[in-house]
Amino acid sequence: MARALDEARRGLGRTSPNPAVGAVLVRDGQVLAVGHHAKAGTDHAEVAALRQVGFRADGATLYSTLEPCNHHGRTGPCTEAILKAGITRVVVGALDPNPLVSGAGVRRLQRGGVEVLTGVLEDRCRTLNEAYNHAIVHKAPFVVLKLAVSLDGRVATRTGDSQWITSEAARARGRALRNELDAILVGVGTVLADDPSLTTRLPGGRDPLRVIVDSTLKTPPQAQVVQTAREVPTLILTTRAADAKRRARLEAAGVAVVPVKKTRAGQVDLGAALAALAAREINGLLVEGGPTVAGAFVDARQVHKVVAFVAPVLIGGADAKSALGGLGARRLEDALRLVDPVVEEVGGDVCISGRIR
C-alpha cells in the first residue's frame, strides 16, 4: 500500500475532479505492475496497472489506495475490469466518499467472489485525497492557506519590504504546494505590489489555475499573470460593477473574467467565488494572497488547512504588515485552531501545518 501511495502522489494536482489513486498488482510476492490515475478521462489506477499485464492477472492481489469505482463516468467501472482479470484479492486503503462509489465497489467485488480487505494505511490514503474528499462531500473547494511570516507574524516591514522573509527551501516547499493543488488564489493587491508569476518553476511541475480576486478589475494588462495567460490558465473573479472596457482588454489577452455576487462593501463575495471555482471542478485551492485576502478567508471561516512557514527573524514596528487582515476573532475561543499540527524545520525556518478544527 505504501508503494501504491507513492504511485498515487504522481497524480496530485492533475486528476481533478477525480481523486489521485495508485495501484500495485502482486502475485506470489512479486510485483507484476504498478499504475496511477494521471488525468480525468484516462485510465484509473487499477486499469492502468492491469493494462500492463494484458488485463490477465489470475490469482493476483490488487492493492489500491482508494476503493475501485463501480459506475460509468468518464471511464467504465474498475470493478468489472478487476473481475474479468481474474484477481482473487483486493486490498483497499480508503473507501471513496463519493455517493456513487462509497461501499458499492467493495460490495460488487465481494459478490463476484473476490476477497476484499479495507482500511490498510487508511489515514495516509485519506490524507492524500483530503481536497477531493472535502470537495465531493461539500461541493466546494478545500482551501489551504499558506503563510510565510516572521517570528512576530509579519509579512513585510513598515516600508513594504518583503522579499524574502523565509528561506529558499521554504519557498520551494510552497511552490510544491502549487504543483499539488488545482488552483492558486491571490488578491489584486498582491498583483499590484509584487507582480508575481504564480507558477511552480519546478522540474516536471505543472502550473495550477491562477485566480485573482479583483472586484473592480485593477489588474494591469502588463502584469505577468495577464501577459502569460495564454500559456497558464488565469481567471479573475470580479463583480458586475467592473468596467466593461477593462474586462474586454483582459479577455482579449486570454484571461477568463467571471463576475460574481458582491458584498455590501462592494467586494467579491467569497462564498460566490468558491461556488464559481467548484463549477470549474476545482478540488484544492491554495490561498497565497496578502493580509487582506488571507484575513477575509479566515473571517469567513473558509480555511480548511494551514501551512505556515515561520522565519526566525523579528521585524517589529506597529506599521509593519501583519499576516492577517480583516476583523479577526473577538474571543480566543472563536479563533481557528489547528488539529494535531505537524512541526518541522525547513531550511532554517519552521513549518507548522494542520487541518482546522
Mind sketching the topology for me?
Layout: H1 2-9, E1 22-27, E2 30-36, H2 45-51, E3 61-66, H3 78-85, E4 89-94, H4 104-111, E5 115-118, H5 122-128, H6 130-138, E6 142-149, E7 154-156, H7 168-180, E8 183-187, H8 188-194, E9 209-213, H9 224-227, E10 234-239, H10 244-252, E11 256-260, H11 270-279, E12 284-287, H12 291-299, E13 305-310, E14 321-322, E15 338-346, E16 349-356
Parallel strand pairs: 3-4, 4-5, 6-12, 6-13, 8-9, 8-12, 9-10, 10-11
Antiparallel strand pairs: 1-2, 1-3, 7-14, 13-16, 15-16
Helix pairs in contact: 3-4
Structural overview:
The two termini are 28 Å apart. The chain has helices spanning 2-9, 45-51, 78-85, 104-111, 122-128, 130-138, 168-180, 188-194, 224-227, 244-252, 270-279, 291-299, and strands at residues 22-27, 30-36, 61-66, 89-94, 115-118, 142-149, 154-156, 183-187, 209-213, 234-239, 256-260, 284-287, 305-310, 321-322, 338-346, 349-356. Helix content is 28%, strand content 25%. By secondary structure, the chain is of the alpha/beta class. The strands form three sheets. A nine-stranded mixed sheet has the order 11-10-9-8-12-6-13-16-15, sandwiched between helices. The model has no long low-confidence stretch (mean pLDDT 93). Strand 8 (183-187), helix 8 and strand 9 form a beta-alpha-beta unit.
